[in-house]
Amino acid sequence: MDYLLIAGIAIILLFILFVLSGNQRRHTDYFLVVVNLLIAGFLASELWVSHELTSFSFVFQNTLSFFIFPSFVIYALHFVNGGGRFDRRWWLLFLPGLFFLGYAGVDHWVVRGYSPAELAELFERPGWVYLGFYKLMQLLFMAVLIWLVRAIHRFKRDIKEAYSFVEPITLDWLLHFAMVYLFILMVSFFVFLMVNLRLIPLDIAQGISLINGLLVPTIFYMNFHGIRHYTVAQYYQQALPKPRTEHLAEAPTKAKYQSSGLREEKAKQVQDSLAKLLAEEKLYLQAQLKLQEVADALGESTHTLSQVINTREGKSFYDLVNEYRVEHLKKAFIRPRPAALYHFGLGAG
Asked: Three-state SS string across 144-202, please?
């Protein structure tokens, strides 16, 4: 098992060097480095504990496990909220780790000193206070991951309101990682609970090895996609409209605009102007057409244009533009000419 841990640490360090060697590093890259350093530190502490269980190695390993998750959440929020805007209260997720560090420090070096035999027993069969820390934090982290999965789904809907092309900025990779991470936390919760209650013939070290075997490959997946991914604000030099991931309750489209002051006559005028613009200027042929560009061409705000598309067309900006592209492609096929299939696709945006 030592060789697998060492190999995992080495690969993670290579990822870190690759990120830091880039010429145009982004702030998300630094958060990715922090997440990787914490994970590499945790794997190293697993090696340390397996060879020398001391109060320091015990506290160090457990404290790192509390800090990995909030670091990942902060990293993910920089993508979900487009360019790094997120509620600073998310930093409070680090408090449980600090509380644990404070309690464990007092317990190990002030209140009592653990003998090697007592440390081994504490590691295999933690007391109720330590067990409470572990289980409550796992439940908290699972709840936050469920929120994050929903937030990513909301983000994917939001970008279709502003962009006609979403493939370079979609967060499917982050969604997949978050869902796997949630699964691993659930497995960890029940496996360690059964180990603590002596319901399965495993010890803590074997349980940790099982979880590491699941986590490390997903970390490689996150690194690969995290390195090649650009946030919306960084890739297009334009942030999304005000993020809505803090308000995840889905409301019907009409209810969402009930407080809008847009009159019916004005909405109809904008709708007609939009249809005329798309038909005559063929803006949809621009592969990277954005809502802002169409709004500027019409002399309207993005909010007004988005409302008209949502309420009167009954679709997102992404769906509207790509509907025009599909129709353009159909017409191109009706008039055969010697061109390869990909030329049709390029011609339709």
From this structure: HHHHHHHHHHHHHHHHHHHECCCHHHCCHHHHHHHHHHHHHHHHHHHHHHHHHCCCCCC
Task: Establish whether domains 2-236 and 261-347 are of one fold.
Answer: no
CB 156 within 8 A of CB 166: yes
Q: How many CB atoms are closer than 10 A to CB 174? A: 22
CB atoms inside a 10 Å sphere around CB 160: 20
Which overall architecture, per CATH, does domain 2-236 show? Answer: Up-down Bundle (1.20)
Q: Which of 21-30, 150-159, 210-219 has the highest mean pLDDT?
A: 150-159
Question: What is d(CA 240, CA 236) in angstroms, rounded to the nearest whole number?
Answer: 10
Q: Domain locations in the chain?
A: 2-236, 261-347
Q: What is the DSSP letter of 239?
A: P
Q: Which amino acid is at 136?
A: L
CATH 1.10.10.60 fits 261-347, yes or no: yes
Amino acid at 82: G
In this structure, how many other beta carbons lie within 10 angstroms of the beta carbon of residue 147? 15
Instruction: Report CA dihedral (210, 212, 218, 220) to the nearest 10 degrees.
Output: -140
Angle in degrees, CA 192, 193, 198, rounded to 5: 90
Q: What is the pTM of this model?
A: 0.70
Token digits of residue 318 = 């992404």
The pLDDT of residue 318 is above 60? yes
DSSP 101-148: HHHHHHIIIII----HHHHHHHHHS--HHHHHHHHHHHHHHHHHHHHH
Show the CA angle centred on residue 197, arms to residues 191 and 203, nearest 5°: 60
Rounded to 5°, angle at Cα 95 from 89 and 96: 130
Pair 171, 79: CB distance under 8 Å:
yes
